[in-house]
Design a protein that fits this description.
This protein has 239 residues and is mainly alpha-helical. Helices cover 77% and strands 3% of the residues. The N and C termini lie far apart (66 Å).
Length: 239
């Protein structure tokens, strides 16, 4: 009975290790100029990162070691990997500014992870404080893909550099973002949710890069727009 229990403990950490491994492979791909591969590896890391926590909860093998290991893996896969990708594809032409934005993304991502670890359980479980680092990583990687695949983006490199800086700041901000970890689907909404998911997956099948970029960007902008709306509303009520 002891051996199966040990194997169950290893399983979620294996997903975490695989996520970190793919992050390193993504970095190597970026350095070698294989940007499409680098983006794919980051997306695969995201999938594995989403599985490790769920597997740990299902098998009841959550541990402090797993939490710390997950954060270190996230820093590699969602901090360093997208930062190197963005720098190699776009930021290198900006010299020190490009280096600074990439470094900021990694450092602020590390701060985001550390803050998440020490504040978990002190706020509502259905929200994130600050943009989650996996989301920032995917948005950065997908928009780098858009830049590389569409000619109209040529000459707009500065916009991508600024966006990288904004993503870094959003990670350490106090802006609230919805968490979908504990979504409670009511029976009356099942058909609507199913229809929406069919449409989303259809778009992802037809236009994977573009659809994913729009969806993740919409999620990122939602937090900003909501924060501005609440700030404006509070200011009006106070005056």
């Amino acid at each position: 009975m002891k051996q199966p229990a040990q194997l169950m403990y290893i399983l979620p950490n294996l997903f975490t290790a695989s996520s970190a491994f793919l992050g390193v492979i993504s970095i190597i791909a970026s350095i070698n100029g294989h940007y499409t591969r680098a983006i794919i590896f980051i997306v695969l890391s995201l999938i594995l990162d989403g599985l490790d926590g769920r597997v740990a909860r299902l098998t009841k093998t959550t541990s402090k070691f797993g939490v710390e290991f997950d954060s270190l893996a996230d820093l590699v896969a969602f901090g360093v990997a997208p930062a190197i990708l963005s720098y190699c594809a776009i930021g290198a032409s900006f010299g020190k500014l490009g280096s600074l934005m990439s470094a900021m993304f990694v450092v602020f991502g590390a701060i985001r992870l550390a803050r998440f670890n020490v504040t978990t359980g002190t706020y509502e479980p259905n929200i994130f404080i600050g943009l989650p680092i996996p989301t920032a990583a995917i948005v950065s990687a997908l928009w780098t893909g858009i830049y590389l695949n569409y000619s109209f983006t040529q000459g707009l490199e500065w916009a991508f550099i600024i966006a990288q800086g904004i993503l870094a700041i959003l990670m350490v901000s106090n802006i609230r973002y919805p968490s979908f970890k504990k979504v409670n689907f009511k029976q009356m909404h099942v058909l609507r949710v199913l229809a929406a998911l069919v449409v989303i997956f259809s778009l992802l099948y037809l236009f994977p890069l573009e659809s994913a970029a729009i969806l993740m960007s919409a999620y990122t902008l939602y937090g900003i727009i909501r924060a501005i709306y609440l700030f404006t509303k509070t200011k009006k009520e106070a005056s």
